[in-house]
Amino acid sequence: MNKYFWLPVLALWLTACGAANAAAEPKNPGPKPGTVTVEIVYLNHPPLRPVLQDVEKLLATYGGRVSGAWYDFDTPRGADFAKAKGLTGHTPLAIFVNGSMDFKVDGRAVKFYSFPQGQDMGMGMVADGDWTIQDLQRVLDQATSQ
Q1: Measured between alpha carbons, how far apart are the two ends of the chain, in Å?
Q2: Residue 2: inside a domain, yes or no?
Q3: Is position 125 within any domain?
Q4: Are 62 and 103 in contact (CB under 8 A)?
Q5: CATH number for position 92
Q6: For residue 96, what are the contacts with CB-CB under 8 A and spacing of at least 6?
């Protein structure tokens, strides 16, 4: 095998990481009084981008009943938010609904932390989190119906 075989692969990977970091952050209008508050701290890197897009699409379906605040962990604002929430170490994603990450969904404990179950992370890796986008939808449905 040619010893330079990995150079194009490395170049592609670095380009993808740079493009993802340069990608526009999700809208960040911040919480509005009288709405269900969803606060999201995340690493703005692939392979998390598709998950963030799924979450953003879901939040949009609730219109004015849900307000979101997005915090990029790699920014001072995001790092401060994560620290205030007690998040340390490598945290790809944490979602707080009305201040909590922990919920009961269909009788099981769900924590909106890290990747959702079954999320394709690329290169043959699949996340094994303990939540799904449907779990988040159920929690938001319940919170917005009160």
Answers
A1: 63
A2: no
A3: yes
A4: no
A5: 3.40.30.10
A6: 37, 38, 39, 40, 85, 112
Report the domain count for the chain: 1
Confidence check: pLDDT of 14 > 90: no
Q: Are 114 and 92 in contact (CB under 8 A)?
A: yes
Confidence of residue 21 (pLDDT cuts 50, 70, 90): very low
pLDDT band at 16 (very low <50, low <70, confident <90, very high): very low
The CA distance from 126 to 78, in Å, is: 26
Helix (H, G, I), strand (E, B) or coil at 28: coil
Query: 67 lies in which domain range?
Result: 25-144
Q: Is the pLDDT of residue 126 over 80?
A: no
Q: Compute the average pLDDT of residues 52-78.
A: 93
